[in-house]
């Protein structure tokens, strides 16, 4: 294999010579990250101008091209979805946010935006020269088809699964250059102990989940806590069709709850686009690849495909909701906290699913800097904040005080239902606003 593709193997320093001033370079999404190429490109800071780099949801602690060029003379970094590290970059003026809904991302690359060079993290190739896309299938195959230059970075730590019918597989023949070398351990994401509020919300949601449900779980505290409760419950034969597979699903599998037996699509398989979690999660993917169907955004995030399965349960968090049911999932005023991501895809998919339910989960309040409480259910989404999901897309809202089912309700009825699950200290002022504005 190496002999056949020997001419493609170069050093990272040689590979990044493919990047020209004015280029758009794609780094990918999530925990998969081209660290060798990033470091080599950063070293070209004084040779290049106006290189734009796209990434998103980066959970490793450093992007070298950004840290090496804080004046942005050579490199400008753009994020599709703000992660913890990118939030810090944003505070320093070093990260530009680009709004998107994940299911539209492949079409953006096909028809609306340019990519010149793709840095694609891949697993160690097999004897036939095929690599897996590791923990970030993303929209890589679409991006590769549009790029002028494709560079594979072989990461020895990435899981080697190849997917179903090649869904997670690429060939060394598809790369213009291939680099390899020693990598840091894969970045991991851990979960803190759930708060009493998160446990109460999770308890309420878990009561709504039937045997055979197909789960799409966000990466916050409530989805993870709900999974832990399901693992200890009598519910059985759960399935997975999710944007991001996490330790929540590993817990369900270890408890014998995750069988995927009742799924009408990908029966017996857990379907996902990204993986993000512990070393144990990544090891599970590597050691038992026959349990999974990793695939690209076009496949996993299709509302029509999600809706073809029964009892799809989507559980995600929010920042605030207003009395009409509009949700802000991603910003504090104009400060971007995360991104829309795939939440709308799975809310719509759950709506389409027979027996499906889409939950937005949030604590009724948060504590301000002065120690006082502020309601997370508000009369209206304030100016500057994002409306991530329209009122027409929200089915269920859960706080520690209950669950409001909004679909089919009038504005007045929605406002009353939302006020009833708000913190008691804020209910009267919310109801007063509702009486005055939703007659």
Automatic annotation (TrEMBL):
GO terms for molecular function: acetate CoA-transferase activity; hydrolase activity. InterPro entries: AcetylCoA_hyd_C (IPR026888), AcetylCoA_hyd_C_sf (IPR038460), ActCoA_hydro (IPR046433), ActCoA_hydro_N (IPR003702), NagB/RpiA_transferase-like (IPR037171). Residues 1-188 form the Acetyl-CoA hydrolase/transferase N-terminal domain. The keyword Isomerase does not apply. Residues 277-434 form the Acetyl-CoA hydrolase/transferase C-terminal domain. The keyword Acetylation does not apply. Keywords: Hydrolase, Transferase. One of its GO terms (biological process) is acetate metabolic process. Belongs to the acetyl-CoA hydrolase/transferase family. PANTHER family: ACETYL-COA HYDROLASE, ACETYL-COA HYDROLASE-RELATED. This is Acetyl-CoA hydrolase. It comes from Candidatus Copromonas faecavium (nom. illeg.).
């Amino acid at each position: 294999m190496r002999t056949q593709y020997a001419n493609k193997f170069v050093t990272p320093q040689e590979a990044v010579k493919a990047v020209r001033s004015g280029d758009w370079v794609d780094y990918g999404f999530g925990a998969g990250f081209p660290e060798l190429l990033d470091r080599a490109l950063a070293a070209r800071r004084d040779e290049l101008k106006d290189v734009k780099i796209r990434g998103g949801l980066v959970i490793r602690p450093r992007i070298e091209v950004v840290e090496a060029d804080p004046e942005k003379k050579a490199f400008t970094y753009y994020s599709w979805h703000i992660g913890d590290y990118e939030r810090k970059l944003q505070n320093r003026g070093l990260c530009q946010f680009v709004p998107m809904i994940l299911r539209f991302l492949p079409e953006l690359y096909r028809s609306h935006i340019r990519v010149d060079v793709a840095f694609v993290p891949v697993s160690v190739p097999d004897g036939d020269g095929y690599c897996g896309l590791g923990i970030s299938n993303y929209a890589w195959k679409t991006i590769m088809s549009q790029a002028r230059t494709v560079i594979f970075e072989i990461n020895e730590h990435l899981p080697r699964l190849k997917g179903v019918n090649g869904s997670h597989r690429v060939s060394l023949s598809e790369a213009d250059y291939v680099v390899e070398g020693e990598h840091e351990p894969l970045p991991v994401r851990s979960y803190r102990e759930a708060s009493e509020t998160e446990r109460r919300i999770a308890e309420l949601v878990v009561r709504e989940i039937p045997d055979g449900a197909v789960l799409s779980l966000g990466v916050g505290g409530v989805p993870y806590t709900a999974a832990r409760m399901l693992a200890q419950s009598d519910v059985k034969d759960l399935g997975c069709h999710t944007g991001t597979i996490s330790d929540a699903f590993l817990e369900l599998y270890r408890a014998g709850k995750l069988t995927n037996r009742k799924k009408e699509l990908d029966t017996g398989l857990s379907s996902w686009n990204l993986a993000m979690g512990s070393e144990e999660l990544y090891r599970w993917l590597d050691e038992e690849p026959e349990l999974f169907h990793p695939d690209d955004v076009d496949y996993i995030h299709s509302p029509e495909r999600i809706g073809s399965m029964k009892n799809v349960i989507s559980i995600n968090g929010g920042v605030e909701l207003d009395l009409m049911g509009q949700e802000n999932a991603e910003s504090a005023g104009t400060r971007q906290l995360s991104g829309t991501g795939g939440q709308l895809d799975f809310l719509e998919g759950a709506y389409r699913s027979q027996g499906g339910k889409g939950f937005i989960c949030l604590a009724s309040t948060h504590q301000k800097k002065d120690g006082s409480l502020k309601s997370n259910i508000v009369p209206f989404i304030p100016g500057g904040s994002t409306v991530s999901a329209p009122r027409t897309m929200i089915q269920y809202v859960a706080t520690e005080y209950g669950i409001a089912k909004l679909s089919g309700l009038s504005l007045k009825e929605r406002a009353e239902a939302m006020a009833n699950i708000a913190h008691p200290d804020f209910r009267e002022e919310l109801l007063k606003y509702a009486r005055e504005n939703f007659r």
